[in-house]
Each structure stands twice: as structure tokens, then as C-alpha cells.
């Protein structure tokens, strides 16, 4: 295995991802950031310079577990201090498992400003993939707002609340078209796009007839749940979040923020045509045009537009369609099985609440507020008063009606953390509920740092104790992100075998910003010496200063 070196500078730049010029966060003048490619077992070494004028930055390697390097997880206030302007921080970590991953900013809402890119880990030298393919394409999906993230953040934390609304466009590899369609000539009522910049030219997948291709698809959307389909072509799902799944075939696939998949397609259709790949919105009343890319059979011209209209996304609120896709995802034979029982069960109720009239998301009635000193340093060095040390609740009232808005919507903010016994097995029941408005319950994709977890099951309504008996312990898929459906629950199991402090949160950027997350700390005493550069702020910064006095 190799060490792969990268030298990156994060800065704002002008770009027109959907043909409208804005500023966004790029890396080395690129948007999306450069693709990192490595092989399983390699070490990634990124020298990251913050070239922003007045704000900090960090980068999280989504899906990489950071065994033995919890300070490289790239979460501001959790694993490290934000990197100051003009300063450089070195991320050095191993990628131990082949799969499709991505990286993104994890400070404020910087991800939504465009700070993301792909991270692809191929199988180690001498090993083979479990399936054959002739070529591969990488599709990083996102959504894009014309309003700056500063404007968004102020609105979300104002009274009265100002919601960010639906995104202006959906992007494929950072390219989309605002308020128009590439397929306008095939669809009534939509206007044709003027491609005013090369930044917004459609993505083209050039294929040869009669071959099999792997599409690596990841979603780093701020808000949107997505559905992807390719005209005339079926897809075989083979990987989810860096883990092999039992292959299954679909016409269209859902993908939530924080998830990644690999699908295989066979180019067995009429080769004289090109075909649309279409990405549309799920789970929220769409107000955003689908994003389109072109699958172009060689030697057709890539600019030859497909003759038939793009595949239509299933109805946004057809949750049965979404559930049936999620329920099909099962572990491929040979995937490690979960321990047969858990040492601890934590139930997390997801609700929308109010604190002094400000709208928040809360977990067991606590809205996450990150402390000034990152947990990893303050816990490792046992500093007092660095965060709220009260124990967060393991459960929620047994008479809580998940089908109704909260009876008492007043909530509290806290920085408290779940401290988990090292090497113990934990079940988490994610319980969805009604939000503040009547008859509203949203989709939330939950992402766990530092681990993969087994998805043991899903259900509608309130989780009951007897639901334990229906858990899938035979072939539950391993993932790092899983969705809870409206008014439903999802059960996961993980082994707390990775010393560090790990975020577990809804991957919807405005929801996390409004407090929708919790902190898990495990085996922090086993963490080796934390690089100084990760702890130069807050109380750990003071500690370093005092130790260094002559
Ligand atoms: Cu991809 Cu904590 O996030
Ligand atoms: Cu959410």
C-alpha cells in the first residue's frame, strides 16, 4: 500500500454551477473539489490550507472510520479545532475498505456552500471486485441554493424563523441548469436552457454498446432526497456506503443525503440513441427541476439529445415506493454479522421544538449545541467544564404520541454526550414523529461517524419493545447512513470499538444546524497522543499554553 499526498487550498471562487454566477467554496480553484482515488490499505495525506479570508474550515471524510486517528475525522468542535485562515492542517488516515465515499466541510453550513468532492477507494492490489464491469463513472449529486449560506444560517436561527425553501437546482458532479430543462423540446411547459457557461454543461457518460458499467453515486445534498433513473436501462445495486449488498435490480433508485451506492448498468439498448439520466426530488413537494445527464453510446455525438423524454421521478410522497427500495438493501453473503444481542439500547425521539420561540430540532427534547472546545481533546485530557456533563436521556416518555405535534414543544439546548462503554454493542432506535405543524413528518437520513452499523429493521408508528423480535440478525446491511421515514422508526446496531468522539446526526444541513444530532464518546482513554494542531483552541489551547510555559 501507498501513501497518497495531496496539497489543497480551500477558498471562495466564482462559478456558475447552474449557469448563474455565484461564489462557492472550492479546492485549488476546483468545484467540486478534486477526486481522491486510492486503494484499500493506502494512507491519505492531505495538507489542507485554509485560504478563506475570515473563517475557519475543516474537512470530514464521510464513511471513513478513522480507526486510530479520531482527530482526523474533520468535525469542528468534535474532533478538532477549526483551521484558522492562512493555517494548514494535515489530515492523515488510512482508507481500510474499498468503496464509494466522499468528503465535505463540517463547520457551520460550509458543505452547502459547495465544499465537497469524491473519495473512491478501489480494492487492494491483487484483490478483485466481486462483480465484473468494463468501465466506471462517478456521479456526485448535490443541490444548490442561490442564497448564501450566511443568509441561510441567519434565517434558520432567527425569530420569526426563515426557512431556506427548496433548492434552485440539483447538480450532478457540480453541474446543473436553473429553471430550465435540457429536454424542454420533449416536455410541455418547460423552457430550454441557455448554457451560458461551461460550468453548467451537462455531464455526459460516454459508453460502448454491449458493456457493463459501474456507476458510483453519492449524495451530498443540503436538503433534498433524490431519485435517479436512466431511460430504458435497469440498474443492479451492488454496493451501499462502502459495503457490498445482495445484488438487486431496479428501474430507479432513491438516494438520501450522506448515502452512496454502486449500480451496474448494461448498455444493451438501441445504440443509435442516447439516453437521459435523470435525478429528481423525493419526500418534499418538488420545486426544483430534475437534473439531467446524457448516456451517450459511442460513436453517437455526445451532444445528440435523446429522442424520448427523461424518466419521471416517482411521485414525491409515494413513501411506499421509497420504503420498498430501502427494504431491499440486504447484506451480501460474507458480510460480518451483528452480535446477537446488544448491551445497551438508546431510543432517540426526533422532534421539532421551540426554545424561546426559536425553532429547533431536538433529540429526546435536547437540541445539540456544540461546545467551544472540541470534545476529543477535552475528554482525552479530562478538562472540567468544557461541555455539559449531564447524561443525555436514553429514552422518551412512554405516553409520547408520535403521530401528533409535541404537546409541550419547549426544549433545551445542550452539549451533553452519550458516553459508551468501549467495545460494547449498542442498539439505537431512531424514532420519527410529527413536527410542529399538523400532519407533517419528514424524512431524516442519519449518519454515524467512526463506524458502520447494521440496519436491523424499520417500522411504521411508534417502536414497541416486541419489535425487537423482528430484527434482522441474518443479513442486515452494514451502512453509515440510514433514513427514518415519516412517522416511522429505524433500528441500528453497532460495536463501540473505535476510540474517539463521534457525531451521529441528520445529514440534512439545515437540520443539523438546528440541533439535530447527538455525540457518542467511546474508549477516549485509549486515544493515542492527539496532534497539537487539532487542539489549539478553547480550553485545550489554554492547556497547551500553560504546559509550554518555561
Ligand atoms: Cu457527511 Cu457528519 O457528515
Ligand atoms: Cu433531518
From TrEMBL:
Write down the EC number.
1.10.3.3
For this UniProt entry, the molecular function terms from Gene Ontology, in alphabetical order, are: copper ion binding; L-ascorbate oxidase activity
* SUPFAM superfamilies xref list: Cupredoxins
What CDD domains does its record include?
A: CuRO_1_AAO, CuRO_3_AAO
| UniProt entry keywords in alphabetical sequence | Copper, Disulfide bond, Glycoprotein, Metal-binding, Oxidoreductase, Repeat, Secreted, Signal
Domain of life according to the entry: Eukaryota
Q: What are its GO cellular component terms?
A: extracellular region; plasmodesma
Q: What are the names of the required cofactors?
A: Cu cation
GO biological process: any one?
A: response to virus
Where in this chain does the record put each Plastocyanin-like domain?
10-122, 137-299, 408-523
Where is the protein found, in the record's own terms?
Secreted
Gene3D superfamilies from the entry? Cupredoxins - blue copper proteins
The keyword Disulfide bond appears for this protein? yes
UniProt catalytic activity:
4 L-ascorbate + O2 = 4 monodehydro-L-ascorbate radical + 2 H2O
Q: Which family does it belong to?
A: Belongs to the multicopper oxidase family.
Listed under subunit, the entry gives: Dimer.
| Role | May be involved in a redox system involving ascorbic acid.
Q: What is this protein's record name?
A: L-ascorbate oxidase
Q: Which organism is it from?
A: Ensete ventricosum (Abyssinian banana)
Amino acid at each position: 500500500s501507498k501513501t497518497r499526498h495531496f496539497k489543497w487550498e480551500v477558498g471562495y471562487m466564482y462559478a456558475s454551477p447552474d449557469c448563474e454566477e455565484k461564489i462557492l467554496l472550492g479546492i485549488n480553484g476546483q468545484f467540486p473539489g478534486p477526486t481522491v482515488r486510492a486503494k484499500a490499505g493506502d494512507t491519505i495525506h492531505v495538507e489542507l490550507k485554509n485560504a478563506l479570508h475570515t473563517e475557519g474550515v475543516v474537512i470530514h471524510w464521510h464513511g471513513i472510520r478513522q480507526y486510530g486517528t479520531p482527530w482526523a475525522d474533520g468535525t469542528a468542535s468534535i474532533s478538532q479545532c477549526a483551521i484558522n485562515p492562512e493555517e494548514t492542517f494535515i489530515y492523515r488516515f488510512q482508507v481500510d475498505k474499498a468503496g464509494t465515499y466522499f468528503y465535505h466541510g463540517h463547520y457551520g453550513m460550509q458543505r452547502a456552500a459547495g465544499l465537497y468532492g469524491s473519495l473512491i477507494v478501489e480494492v487492494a492490489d491483487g484483490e478483485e471486485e466481486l462483480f465484473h464491469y468494463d468501465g466506471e463513472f462517478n456521479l456526485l449529486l448535490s443541490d444548490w441554493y442561490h442564497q448564501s449560506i450566511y443568509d441561510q444560517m441567519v434565517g434558520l436561527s432567527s425569530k420569526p424563523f426563515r426557512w431556506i425553501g427548496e433548492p434552485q437546482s440539483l447538480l450532478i458532479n457540480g453541474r446543473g441548469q436553473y429553471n430550465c430543462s435540457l429536454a424542454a423540446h420533449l416536455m410541455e411547459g418547460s423552457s430550454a436552457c441557455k448554457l451560458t457557461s461551461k460550468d453548467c454543461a451537462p455531464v455526459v457518460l460516454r459508453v460502448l454498446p454491449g458493456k457493463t458499467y459501474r456507476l458510483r453515486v453519492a449524495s451530498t445534498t443540503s436538503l433534498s432526497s433524490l431519485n435517479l433513473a436512466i431511460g430504458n436501462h435497469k440498474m443492479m445495486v451492488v454496493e451501499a456506503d462502502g459495503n457490498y449488498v445482495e445484488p438487486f435490480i431496479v428501474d430507479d433508485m432513491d438516494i438520501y443525503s450522506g448515502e452512496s451506492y454502486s449500480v451496474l448498468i448494461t448498455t444493451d439498448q438501441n445504440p443509435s440513441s442516447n439516453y437521459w439520466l435523470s435525478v429528481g426530488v423525493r419526500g418534499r413537494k418538488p420545486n426544483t427541476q430534475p437534473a439531467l445527464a446524457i448516456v451517450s453510446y459511442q460513436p453517437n455525438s455526445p451532444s445528440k439529445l435523446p429522442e424520448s423524454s427523461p424518466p419521471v421521478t416517482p411521485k414525491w410522497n409515494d413513501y411506499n415506493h421509497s420504503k420498498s427500495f430501502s427494504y431491499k438493501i440486504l447484506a451480501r453473503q460474507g458480510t460480518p454479522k451483528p452480535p446477537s444481542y446488544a448491551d445497551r439500547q438508546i431510543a432517540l425521539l426526533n422532534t421539532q421544538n421551540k426554545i424561546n420561540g426559536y425553532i429547533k430540532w431536538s433529540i429526546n427534547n435536547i437540541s445539540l449545541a456544540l461546545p467551544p472546545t472540541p470534545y476529543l481533546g477535552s475528554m482525552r485530557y479530562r478538562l472540567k467544564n468544557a461541555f455539559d456533563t449531564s447524561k443525555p436521556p436514553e429514552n422518551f416518555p412512554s405516553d409520547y404520541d408520535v403521530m401528533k405535534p409535541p404537546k409541550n414543544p419547549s426544549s433545551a439546548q445542550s452539549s451533553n454526550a452519550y458516553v459508551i462503554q468501549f467495545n460494547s454493542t449498542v442498539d439505537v432506535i431512531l424514532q420519527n414523529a410529527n413536527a410542529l405543524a399538523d400532519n407533517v413528518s419528514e424524512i431524516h437520513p442519519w449518519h454515524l461517524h467512526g463506524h458502520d452499523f447494521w440496519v436491523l429493521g424499520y417500522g411504521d408508528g411508534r417502536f414497541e419493545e416486541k419489535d425487537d423480535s423482528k430484527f434482522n440478525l441474518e443479513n442486515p446491511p452494514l451502512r453509515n447512513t440510514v433514513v427514518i421515514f415519516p412517522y416511522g422508526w429505524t433500528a441500528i446496531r453497532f460495536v463501540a470499538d473505535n476510540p474517539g468522539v463521534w457525531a451521529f446526526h441528520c445529514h440534512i444541513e439545515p437540520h443539523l444546524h438546528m440541533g439535530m444530532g447527538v455525540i457518542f464518546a467511546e474508549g477516549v482513554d485509549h486515544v493515542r497522543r492527539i496532534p497539537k494542531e487539532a487542539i489549539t483552541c478553547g480550553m485545550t489551547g489554554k492547556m497547551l499554553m500553560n504546559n509550554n510555559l518555561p
